[in-house]
Amino acid sequence: MTPYPDPQVRAVVDAADLTRITPPDLYGIDCLGLADFGDGAEWLALLAAPPSRRLIVVSRSDHCPTRQALQAAYPALAHLLSDFPYPSPGHHRIIIGVVELHLIIQQPWHSFDGYVDGWWGPQPEVIQPLRHFTRPLAHGAQRVAVIGAGLSGTQTADALRRRGAQVVLMDPAPASGASGNAQGMLYIAPQREPTPASLFWLQAFEHALRSYRECPHFHPSGLFCMAEHADQIPKLQTLMAAIKRPPEQVRFMDADQASVQLGQRARLGGLFWPQSGWMEVAERVKSEAARLDCQALTALDIREHDDGIVITTDGGDYSVDAVVLANATAVRQFAPDWLRVQAVRGQISRRRADQAVTSAVCGEGYLTPAAADGYMSFGASFNPKDDGTDLRAEDDADNDRRVRELVELGDPGKPGASRASVRCASPDYLPIVGRLPDDDWIQGLAKLRTDAKWRPPHPMQGWRRIAVNVGHGSRGLTSTPLCADLVAADLTGEPLPIAKGLFEHLTPARFLIRALKRNQL
């Protein structure tokens, strides 16, 4: 970002002189910054003429403003704020057309990664901590290839197109992996402590809710997360107080209340997320692949040069500015050896039951409401380091056991077609998202082999034109919308939709740094 812009310099756009605009009186917000992405933009869409280019407005606060205070401050955005997540500490984003409002709550200014053209309020003090690397602010990829047409690949291609990039999506068989399941849940299991993983999954969940709001394949039936044992219930109630979400987003239910909600007898109480639900995953992915004109191509080779990338496929060569590998465990074909992903086999069972739950439910296992064909999905097995897709009777039996520990369904009904697939997981169970660092990093960070706490005097900033979006494990429905926007923003030069500190826990560069610290490179 530009840490110390001249506060007297304002971007002047076609229909507005920003020096003459008085910003709203924001409750508890000490500074307001503007990042302008081109002529014709208008601040916060408050003027009559609509903006024609992306405009970023950044607000920072040491307090968590209430939704009512935000609605009073931004009356033009009231209809969006009514659905916006409760502003807890972290980095939040509201999009209205081509205008983005970033709320940075209880985070330092340097957590925003983008150019800032002007400030209202006191000029912020930006103290940049010593870092292993920094993200280059300008890349501007206009032609991008996305390899892999599952949840991750289709949403990445869509996010790039929404930012004006020309995208070719490649996959000979869309939705053939874990994204080919008939049903999946929008799952959330936050932690009491605000760890990077907990912050990511909570932000990803709320981002996914907004992304799927208009999706015809998403069914907002609600999601009941049942305690795995009775001793866990007090911890869930403590968690409710820690995450500070209003009852319309999450509330505690005892076993009797949950039974009424599910339409079947629940074994224990837990947390109910009313806005969550389940997705017709395979139908969603196939529909998106068709809309995005997915090409039935297999990538055979990727050659990177100074001006771009040449991808050799079984249908010819393609020249692009950048490529995104969203092909799950097949990423090993093109990624460096230090980027390690793990295959996790999962078998999902299906049954046609007269007695089905009305809301999705999860615990040790999970169960969805019945789809249009009358079958419900449940499971799933979890077999790390197993890439087999054969159907196994013992897995179906174990899935039956998991369901019976959730609800009392009586007769399980007529068996349906089970399905086994391979999920792609990372060693730390966080997605791997963003551009790959270039080979110079190994030499530039070599001192980490003998001093794990060392930081370079000048952060590394060499990045390749190859990005990845993999490692979503069994929670791809939750993580892929936010990660798609993250990759697209990184490649097209937009500010990241998450704080820089959180980005550092998702970037593939984290594994190169860990390998150096362990003297594995």
Task: Write a structural description.
With 521 residues, the protein is α+β, with helices and mostly antiparallel strands. It is built from 12 helices and 30 strands. The strands form 7 sheets. Strands 12, 13, 15, 21, 22, 23, 24, 25, 27 and 28 form a 10-stranded mixed sheet that branches. The protein starts with 11 loop residues before the first strand and ends with a helix. Residues 1-27 and 37-52 have low confidence and may be disordered.
Can you give me a brief rundown of this structure?
22% of the residues lie in helices and 26% in strands.
Distance between the termini: 32 Å
Q: The biggest beta sheet, please?
A: 10 strands, mixed
Classify the secondary structure makeup into a structural class.
Answer: alpha+beta
Q: Report the average pLDDT across residues.
A: 84
The geometry reads as: globular
Share of helical residues: 10-25%
Tally of DSSP β-strands:
30
Radius of gyration (Å)? 24 Å
Low-confidence stretches: 1-27, 37-52
Give the strand content.
25-35%
Helix segment tally: 12
